Amino acid sequence: MSQIPAELKYVSSHEWLRTEADGTVTVGITDHAQELLGDVVFVELPKVGAHLAADEQAGVVESVKAASDVYCPVAGEILEVNAELEASPELANSDPYGAGWFFRMRPADAAALDGLMDAAAYASEIGA
Asked: Which family does it belong to (predicted)?
C-alpha cells in the first residue's frame, strides 16, 4: 500500500507538495505514482527560472515500462531542481518523499495551495 504522508498536499496527477519555512514548495511524485511506473530510469526536470502555470508540464519521468509527464501543481517560478535525482533517477522509487524530490518553486499565489488535496482526499482519490 502506498505511503501518503499527512503533512503534504497532493494533486490528482500524483504530485506532492511540501511547504518549506521560507514559503517555497518542494514538489515530487507520490509513492503511488512510482509504484505504477515501476523502476524509474530517467527524469527530465524543468529549467531553473522558468515560470510555469498550474497543471503545465514541468518534466518527464521514464521507467522501464512507461513514461509520464510531471506537472507543476501551482503556478510559480522554478527555483531549484534536484541534480542528484537526474544522476540517480531510482531515488524517485526508493525515497519519493525525501531524496527523490523533483523541484523547488516559489508559488505565484500562496493561497493556491489551500485548494489542493490533503492526505485523506488523495487516499480517497487513489482508492487507498
From this structure: Belongs to the GcvH family.
Q: How far apart are the first and last CA of the chain?
A: 7
Q: Which helix (H) or strand (E) holds 80?
A: strand 76-81
How many Å apart are CA 101 and CA 105, to the nearest integer? Answer: 12
Dist CA 45 CA 42 (whole Å):
10
Cell numbers that stand for 75 in this block: 503556478
Domains and CATH numbers, the chain: 9-107 (2.40.50.100)
3-state helix, strand, coil in the chain (%, to 5): 25, 35, 45
Contact 55, 65 (CB under 8 A): no
Closest CA relative to residue 5, chosen from 106, 125, 98: 98
pTM: 0.96
* Among candidate residues 9, 15, 22, the one with its CA nearest the CA of residue 112: 9
The span from the CA of 9 to the CA of 85, in Å, is 21
